[in-house]
Specification:
Number of domains: 1
Radius of gyration: 15 Å
CATH topology: BH3618-like
Distance between the termini: 37 Å
CATH class: Mainly Beta
Order of helices and strands: EEEEEEHEEEEH
Number of strands: 10
CATH architecture: Roll
Length: 148
């Protein structure tokens, strides 16, 4: 199957790799995405909409930069995503990478929870925990005076 992408052009994807957000992503109508892992942007990935070429989010596993990140995901989310065990999920966070890379942030307050096996996902706005909406990722990776 082919999809169009503003950033990556025409992509050939396997339909069984499509991740479905039954409720959509907050603020967007798109419900079907593909996770793209590119060598030159690792450890960051892209969550590319299957239906809207211009909709793509930079995402990452939070353990890459914050090993202690353990959001409390409500049981209702596991039920919605048809999860039966923690090992069936992947947690990603959305990143914002502005022109000034030192202002790069990660949204820790609303992780994306994916049932890897069933390819179902939801962005859950956390009601517990003290996780920021804009966690300074650059400082976490390189320190306040670090170099990229």
């Amino acid at each position: 199957m082919q999809i169009q992408s503003t950033r990556f052009g025409t992509l050939e994807i396997e339909p069984d790799r499509i991740i479905t957000f039954p409720e959509g992503v907050p603020g967007f109508e798109d419900k079907r995405f593909i996770l793209l892992t590119l060598e030159d942007t690792a450890p960051f990935c892209w969550l590319q909409s299957v239906d809207s070429p211009e909709v793509a989010f930079v995402v990452s596993e939070p353990s890459v930069f914050l090993p202690d990140y353990k959001p409390e995901i409500p049981d209702s989310v596991y039920q919605e995503l048809e999860c039966t065990a923690d090992d069936e999920i992947l947690i990603l966070v959305v990143l914002v990478i502005p022109e000034d890379i030192k202002k790069m942030t990660a949204n820790l307050a609303a992780p994306i929870v994916i049932n890897v096996e069933k390819r179902l996902a939801k962005q859950e706005i956390l009601s517990t925990g003290d996780y920021p909406l804009r966690y300074n990722l650059y400082e976490s990776l390189y320190g306040k005076g670090g170099n990229a």
